[in-house]
Every structure is written in structure tokens, then in C-alpha cells.
Amino acid sequence: MAKVPGLVKGLGVTLGTLFKTTVNGSNTVQYPHEKETPPIRSRGVIALHQDNCTSCMLCSRSCPDWCIYIEAHKELAPPRREGGKPRQVNLLDRFDIDYALCMYCGICVEVCPFDALFWSPEYEYSEPNISDLLHDKSKLSEWMETVPEAPELEAGADKKKK
Amino acid sequence: MPPKSPNGEVRQLSSSSETTTPVVDLEREQMLEAIKLSLGDVFVDSHLKPGDDLWIRVRTDSWLGSVQKLRDHHSFDYFGFLSAIDWMPSPYGRGEDDPTEPAPVRDTTIRSGYAGGDTRMQVFIRLVNSKTHLGITVKVDVADSSPSVESLITIFAGANWHERETHEMFGIDFVGHNDLRNMYLPVDFEGHPLRKDFPLLARMVKPWPGIVDVEPLPGGDEEDSAEVKASAQSKDSDAS
Amino acid sequence: MIALLAEVPYWGQSLLRVLGGLVAVLLPAGTIVYVFLFKMMSFMQSRLGPMEAGPYGSMQLFAEVGKWLQKEDIVPDRADARIFKMAPVIVLVSTFLLVVVVPFGPEAWFTDFETGVFYALAVSSISVLGILIAGWSSANKYSLLGGLRAAGQLIAYELPMVLAVMGVVIQAGTMNLQKIVVAQNTGSMFGIDAIGHPYVISQFFGFIIFMIAIQAELTQAPFDMPIAESELVSGYMTEYSGFRFLIFFIGEFATAGVFAMIASVLFLGGWGVPFTWFGWTSVDDVANWMNFVGPLIMFTKMMLLVFIIMWIRFSYPRLREDQLQRFAWKGLIPVALINIMVTAILKVVF
Amino acid sequence: MTMLGDRQQLSYIASQAADARLNLELETEGMTLNIGPQHPATHGTLRIIARLDGEQVVWAEPACGYMHRGYEKLTEVRTFPQVTTLVNRIDWLGSFANEVPFILAAEKLMGVEAPTRAQYIRTILFELSRIANVSLFLGDLGVQLGAITPVFLAFRDREYVLNLIESATGGRFHPNFDRIGGLKDDLPAGWIDETRAVMKKLRSFCDQIEDLLFGNEIFQSRTRGIGVIPRDVALQYGLSGANLRASGVDWDLRRDQTLPMVWDKADWKVWTHPDGDSFARCWVRLQETRESTKIVDQLLGAIPSGPVMAKVPKIIKVPEGEAWVSTENPLGEMGYYVVSRGDLGPFRVKIRSASFNNISITPWLLRGVYVPDIVTILASLYFILGDIDR
Question: Among A28, A80, C45, D275, which is 20 to 30 Å from A72 by CA?
């Protein structure tokens, strides 16, 4: 068979793609009209489960970017059992994440010993003003609803891990 | 077909690194002997990690000559990189100090790494033999007062940019390199950023958020915060 | 058509002609941009192209025009302002001058030149001036390089184009574009006159050369070095913004359309269908409705040719300037000359 | 930055100006052309200052530093886990591959080795990031040479790979999935089958690109014989990756080096090309992408079961020592010289990035070529700006 000149082959590729797109549709997702669902593990935004946070500062201290700001104070809470001593608890005054600084590395989520931080695949929170990207604890708690269950693991995985 | 590993052995090798890597590394030892022989008194010190790597240190006044010998007689013909180290620990730490308190005093005694060193800064170069693929790290001391060393551009043209970068970042002069323009920084930039006594401003302009601690209950005791920390740590060990 | 126009006063005729010219230039340009640049290119690249403005983005072009008109008309500080502003207009004017000789029907033309081919080839090189002016007056090194490349390229490809047309002229025995159309549609090949005698068959090499030369004249890939966005940013257009860029843009695609029309006139039989289909013997017999159907036939042929031009544009990388010149002078021109010789000999023999 | 930088650059150009008066007969003066930092051909902000005689380059030099982020300094104030988040931003197209040598260096200092399953997954993700990176190169190559279609095809198919990386690691561009001692997590269910399907798509993408670009006579005439790097020059400048192999040096760190990775478990080939020109470099990359898909396919079937994390303390302190680990990254040899002082963070990290060496050859290579060839040569050397400036 004679060799097809490269010039002709190239034309064939573009024409082929033209037909394929016409018949099968394109790969484009028309974003505001249709949306892709990001994978479960997708690191979209960090959500805060306020009740679990003991303001231990671990996340803030392990953040490479210094973008987590926590303020808390101690308060006396009613005792767990009748007649017990009133407990001292840390009450969270401020839990801000500056998403303008955040590198989305996930170290804070990993170091959290009390499961207070989670990744959510939510991604629609852009702001026209960079200073609006500093989100406080109420906003972070709202994202808790979007946190999905962790995915099933591939066969052969060590089931010990959560 | 790759062999299936028996239930994915967990190897905690902090003590067993000797079991996987041979204690004797004949190839590298022979190489080291040959280098010692040909460099003669230019050779100062060496460090050999069997099965891993070889470090040697040469005299500053014959830096160019010894690298040339390594290239010509020991066929280290591939130029990996050239850079420098400032062995003085940084007086600023990781910039996590509380600005309201007096700065902590840090130990800034100079300790050199493998193959020793007599000066604060060292230039080092990575060469590889393109046939055997064995590499070598060659170090050289640079004097503290006027850090300067011979340029390698005549034997490794690729050293050009690396020396420019090192000059810019450490202030080390490369004799014989007539084009030590800055690569990255503006011309009138003062200081040499990779020297340890150059503060990283990004970590100075803003206090570390981790300094903030939980405000104690008025009149309360400190036990509780200690309790939190303890529980955090116990959770740590669980997780790992 | 002429009979119709005869009753209109001269100024009215002129006005109608101007309007007709605008339609003949802008309508194909707009269609080409939407169909080929927006949609065909996107589909060839597995995407959809503009989808928001109008159904399937069909109003996108108007949105773009609106955007460009709003933009500031920037003239660089060091630019030679007056001729900098003039340059895009010169480019567009050459397109309008070009469309003047194209016949759209038996009586639907703007003007009927005996030396139409000669005129068309002469006028088409006016745009070189505009591009050179644009490149020079922008006071930008990229523009200068782009302008010089364009000048060299357009001149180099003018020649094979002229030579390719020469074969058609020899075969038709006339330089009048209308007569060339008629000659193709009344002619016969090897005694079969069912499809007339489109010169694309007998002048196949001429056609190929002509199409390559058009590709280069239009500075479409693989001959887009004057624009060469990855080397020269945008070549001679780098400094233009707002509506002056728009004029260049219209000029580019309008010229593509007009050149394709000329190519279809010269090689594909223009507005005509083979006259034997309807039993016409000469241009005088042609039914009057051809004045309205003719432009559509012409349009179809034009779109076909533009499709080929654009298809190549979207598929090929670009040549280097010196390779382009070598290709023109060492490849195309000798082939074109041989083509002329062969045509002339055959013409004399038969 | 620019004004001061300019003055320095211009004084240097002035010193070269004597050289630039090449055309002695015509006594024409050269022209200095600034390509970049904002220029379509320099993906990123590389700036090339070229002294031209007509369209011929008399002297040219890249001026980098427009994206210098000072990573070597930044690593000194970060802990080991924090450094991973930095280093995957060096070559942002193949970010997972950037993490691996750093983590390996740290593991070497600690004497820890990742479990076999983690090694397999690491290698697979490493190759996936190579595919993501190089497939964009293949598309971008077309744009640099004036063909507009390949880049869209590349973006289309690279998206599949990025989706895979995202669904496994959570990050499309910056996975941060490697941990000292293993990986952050295991693969999600169904990932292996998905990957197989994508690898098939990528192979057909390679075929498409080959038909569209590599077979194209225009492409060949633009790249063959342009920017020839002989073998010894390539070694001298420390070129690496496909640039080195295109000069006929049969050297691939994946094969020629013992690392706790599992490339040796797959059957693949190191491609070399004797010519050393732009075409050779591009061609070697194309072949490597195909090899990578093969490696991934083979390793997918062989992933052993088990944990993905070795036992390491939660708070990582790396013992004192020095370690050099380099791997065959998409752009070439990427290595980290890590010096630790037994602290939470590294004492010094020298990042040996491939593009820095690869681009440092350009002043030598660009002499005497034409302006369009600058673009061809830069495209074929293939750099990522973050990898030059770091």
C-alpha cells in the first residue's frame, strides 16, 4: 500500500473529529446550564463541623500558609452527669479560613484529631473581591451539608483505614 | 508478570536499611579509591553511603582542576547541578515566634554535613557518569570573608546559569565567570536570599496564627488546655 | 436586471450598487465567520464554539462586532497616526474593489469589464499596501516583521496566482469574467456537454496552484507567517484594537469569500449551471430567474471552496518564511509556467 | 522589576552589540526583539531577548525570574509534610511527579520504605502525571508551530487523565497525595477500570497527534534539522529527559536507577533518537507517552493488596543527613538534595529542576536560527516556567 501523505492524514483527523462531534456531541460541558459532579474526594472547600472543634489549634499550626485563624475562650458548661463538677469547654469565637491564601493541600483536614474539618467538593464560591474569600465559621458550617461519604476503596485495599 | 507481593509487607526500616542495601558497595569504594589516587592532596574528605551515594570534598584552590580530573579521568561527564549550602542555622527559625515576646536565642553554631567542611558556606556540584549512571557530589569550602571559587564554565558550559543563580542567592563569586548577572532578582536587590541570616519577610510581616491560644477562663486553671493537648496526641498515635 | 435598473436614475443605480456591494462582501464574510470559524473549527476540535448569544451562538458575530465597536481606538504613541488609521481601510477597500468585477448572474453584475481578470489581480494587490503600511506605522517590531513578511509573501504568491489564471484565460480566450463563466457552461469536454466544461478539470494544476496562492494571499495557515500568533503575537495587526481591528478582521474573511468567488468563477463555472440542462445556447437565452438563483449557486460554490481553505487552515502547522518563499519560487511558479505552456500548446493544437 | 531588570539586560546587550553587527556589507544595524514576558509562545512568563539581523538571530538569551517564587527559601521555614504542598507547584502540569522524589529523599533519610501497594500506586500516578503533562506538550507543540487543532484535542484527552488524578487524590493539579511512608489514601473503587479505559483513549490520542502533526510534511520541515544538540553538548549542559534521549543518550532514570518504585515490574522501552533535533525531541516524547500508557496498563493489573502507609510517627522528624534523589519526571531529571538536621523541617533543599538545565542551553542553541525557529526550539525543549524559576 502506498504511503498516505501526512498532509492528507492530517486533514483526515480534523474531518473525522468534525463528524464525530456532529454525531456524538462534543466534550464541552455547558457550565452554567449543566454541571459536572466532581469526584467524591475532590478538594473543593473545607467544611467545619463546629461541635467537634475543640479549638486545639492543630490545624492552624500545621497550615503551611497560615490561613486559618482561630480564637476561642474557655467557659463553664453544665456537668455531664447529675451532681458532677461543671466542665470547662473551649468555645469557638472565630474560625476563619482565608481561601485567598489557602493552597488546598488538606493538611488541616488530616491533622484534625476530632474530625471537625472535612473536604467538600463544592466549588461555586468565587467572589469578585478577594477579601470576601475570608470565610467565617458559620459559612464553613454551611458547607458541612455538602460533604459526601468517603468512597468505597479499590479491591485489595487494607480495610483497616476508614 | 510482576510478582505479587505477599500481603503488602509493611516495612519499618528505621533499623533495617542495612538489610536491604548492601553494606559493602564495591563499585563506589573502588571509585572513591581511584578518585583519591588521582586527586592526590587536593582530596580532603569523603563520605560514602553504601548503595546510595558518594560525597567528596576537595581543596578550594584546585576546584576547577579537580572537577576537570573527575570529568576527564573518571568520566563524570554529566553535569547535574551546582549550588551552595549555608551551614549556619537560621537565627529566625521558622518565623513562628511571638513578636510581642523577646526573640528566642537560637543555636547558630555551624555544623557541616557529609564530607565535613571548615567554612560557613560550601559550594557543591552533582556529577554523574553517563555510562555507569553512578553519581558523585563534590563539595568545596568557600572562605567566609570573601566567598569565591573558580568557575566551571570552561569545562561544563551548563554551569553558567547555576553559578549565576548561586552568586545571586549566596553571594559567592565565581572567578572566571564574566557574566554573573542576577537571574531572578532585581539589580538593586540587597542581600543574598538563600543565606540563612537573610530573613524571610513573608514570615515576618504577619504573626503566626498558631501563636494564639485559647483564652483561659478568668480565674481558671491551665489543666484543661493540657488535657486537650494530651487527648490530641493520643488521637495522633491512634491514627498512625 | 439591467432592464430594471435602466428606469432608476443614475444616483439610485449607484446607491443600489453600493448596497449590493456591501451585501456581496459582508454577507459571505459573516457566514464564513459563523459557519467556519466559529462552528466548523470548534467541531473539528471537539467543542461546540459559541453557544450563548442567540440559538447555537448565531448572534455571536453581532455581539463581537458590538464589543469591538465599544473598544477604545488606541493609536500607539510612536505610531504614524494618520497612516496607522488609514491602513485597515485600504485593506478593506481592496476587497470591495475586488467584488466589483465578479458576475453573479447573467445580468447581475456591478460592472462588466472586458479585462476583468486583469483588474481583479491588480486590485487584489492593493491590500499588500495596507498591510505594509500597518506593519510599518505601528512602531512595533512584531508589526514590522509581520508587515515585511506579508509584503514578501503576498508579492511572491501574486505571481503563481497570475500564472495560474493565465491558463484559464488562454483556454477561455477572454479576460472578461462573465465570458469565462459562459465559456465554461457552454463548453463541452471530449464531446460530452452534459456538465459543460468547468476548468477545474482541464486546468486542474492551475486550480491547485490558484488555491494554494489564495491560501497564501489570505495569510491562512500554513501560510500565516505575517500573523503568526505564536511568533509575532499578531504580526501587522498587533497594535490595532477596536473597530480598526474589526476592519482587518472583516477584511480577512471578506477577502476569503471574494477570492473564493473569483476561484469559482474561474474554475467552477461561477453562477452558471451547464446551459444544456435548460437548453440555453448563449448567455442571451438564459432565463431571467438565473439573476436570482445565480448568486445562490455562486454562494454555494464559494462556501465549498472556503471550506477547503478553512479545513486546511485548521489542520496544518505553519511553514517558515524562507520555506514559503522557496515553495513559491521553486515550486509553484515553475509548475504554473509549465501549465501555461501545455495549455497554450494544446490550445493551438486543438 | 522590569525597569531595573531591563537596565541590566540592556547593558549586557550593548556589550554584545559589537557581535550583532554581522551584516558588514550592508552596515545594517541589528534589532533587539523582546519576546515575552507576555508572549503567546512562552507558556508562562519567560522572556527572550534576541538580537536580530533581519529575521536571523545573532544572539539570544532567555531572561527568567518573572515567576521566581523562592521555593528553596520557603522550604526552610516549612515542615516536611508542608513542603510537599510546595513542590507540586514546581512543574504544575505533572505535579504528582514532583512530590515523589522529595518524599523518596525524605524516606531515604528516615530509612522508611513505602509498602509495595503504595509503590505501585505511586508509580501509576507518576506515569499518569507524565501523560497529563506530555499530552499537553503534544498539543501545545501544534500551537507553537501554527496548527491550532492539536491543543484542543490535547486538552480534551488530558481532561480524562486529570479526572483520574482528581478522583484518586482529590486534587486535579496539586494532588499532595504522597506522604512520607506511603500515600494519603487508597484508590477509590472502580478507579482501575476507569484508568484502563482512559489509557485506551490516550493511545488513540497519540495516534491522532501523530497523524495530525508528526506525519505532516510541513511539521517535519519545520522541525527536522532545527536546533540540533549533539550528545556531548547535551551532557555538558545537563540536559535531561527526552531532550537528552533525543540526542542519542540512552539514559532513563526510571530504568537506570534503583528506587523504591516499580517501573522494573513493567515491560517497557526507553526510546532514543540519534538526530538531536527538534523533531527528535518531540518524537521521543510522543513515544514516551505511549510507553507510559503501557506501563500504567501493566501495573494496574499487578497492584498487590495491602496497606498504603508504612508505620511512621505522626510528627515527622527526619534524622540528620543528606540525601539526593532524582526521578525521571515528565520534563526530565527532577531531583532534590535534601539536607536535614533532625528537625521538623529540612535544613536546605536544593531543587534540581529539569527545565532550568534544559533552557540554559538556549543561548548556545539559538545562535543563527530564524525567528520562527526560536519558537520551534523552545517548544521542543519543552519547559514549564515554574520549573525554571522555582
Answer: A80
8 Å CB contact of A74 and B231: no
Interchain contact C/B (3 or more Cβ pairs less than 8 Å): no
> What domain range includes position D296?
79-358
How many domains is chain C partitioned into structurally? Answer: 1
Residue D195 above 70 pLDDT?
Answer: yes
| D16 found inside a domain | no
Q: Is D341 near chain B, with CB under 8 Å? A: yes
pLDDT band at C188 (very low <50, low <70, confident <90, very high): low
Instruction: Tell me, yes or no, whether D376 lies in a domain.
Output: no
- Residue A113 and residue B231: Cβ atoms within 8 Å? yes
CB within 8 Å of D273: residues ≥ 6 apart: D245, D246, D247, D248, D280, D281, D283, D284
Scanning D140-199 for CB atoms below 8 A from B yields none
Q: Of A5-19, B107-121, C67-81, C271-285, where does mean pLDDT reach its minimum?
A: C271-285
**Is there a domain that residue C5 lies in?**
no
Looking at the domain assignment, is residue D7 inside a domain? no
Contact D324, D105 (CB under 8 A): yes
CA distance A131 to chain D (A): 23
CB pairs under 8 A between A and C: 40
Nearest-angstrom CA–CA distance, D196 and D176: 23
Q: Tell me the backbone φ, ψ of residue B173, rounded to 5 degrees.
A: -90, 140
pLDDT for C193: 64
In sign, the C-alpha dihedral spanning D16, D19, D22, D26 is positive
Kindly report the CATH number assigned to the domain that includes residue D124: 1.10.645.10
Query: Is-contact B184 D389, C-beta < 8 A?
Result: yes
- Work out the average pLDDT over C189-208: 74
Q: How far apart are CA A136 and CA A154, in angstroms?
A: 36
Range of the domain at C286: 10-349
Q: How confident is the model at residue C3 (pLDDT cuts 50, 70, 90)?
A: low
- Residues of chain A in contact with residue C47, where contact means CB-CB under 8 angstroms, are 21, 26-28
CB contact B208 to D (< 8 Å) = no
Among C90, C86, C113, C91, which residue's Cα sits nearest to residue C102?
Answer: C113
